[in-house]
User: Fold this.
Amino acid sequence: MIAALVVPAAPAQAHGVTVPVVISAGHVDVIEVEYEDGELELAVHDDTVDPGAHRHHSDVIFVVKPEARTTVPSDPAFSFLGSAGSPVWVLPQVQNEDLIWAGIATEELEEGVFEGDSVDLTVQQLISAPSSGRVAIYTENLFGLPTVLANSRDGLPDVVDLPVGDHLHANWAFSKAGVYLLKVKASATLAGTATVVESDSVQLRFVVLP
Assistant:
């Protein structure tokens, strides 16, 4: 199925229909938060091409290759991923050149614009997934202990606080092979006001290969 999706490094037109870019390895900011002309915007920053490219989420499919498959650790701290020993596909926090290295970027945001110099990333909804499929986003500290940022297993929405001018790498975990659509948006309060600005919601498309 995925072989048929492999396309050039930019969206192509086929009979008037845009064929999405398929990204399966390399560094990519799956969510880049921008603020232009008074509006928050979410985009994909694709560093798998030279020069890097900004893309709309609707133009991109993220592929989680079979090499991402592992098992849930026996440590109870990882029980949010499922039963110990059960399969899980993980795009890792630490770079593996064979897999997507998925970043979340606020580097384009300036200090002093938003209250607390932060924005909220809301993981709103797992719109579709394989039967009983779950998604979790989490980080691990130097001792290998996880901090869960978002987890569909215990219900969404979840909100991730992001400092401006930052770049976050986390683990993206999927419990089953199949297609996932994850809906997210960003919001922030303008500094010195009660005005909240919000981005449009976007859908992240992941195809997890068995």
In short: Confidence is low (pLDDT under 50) at residues 1-10.
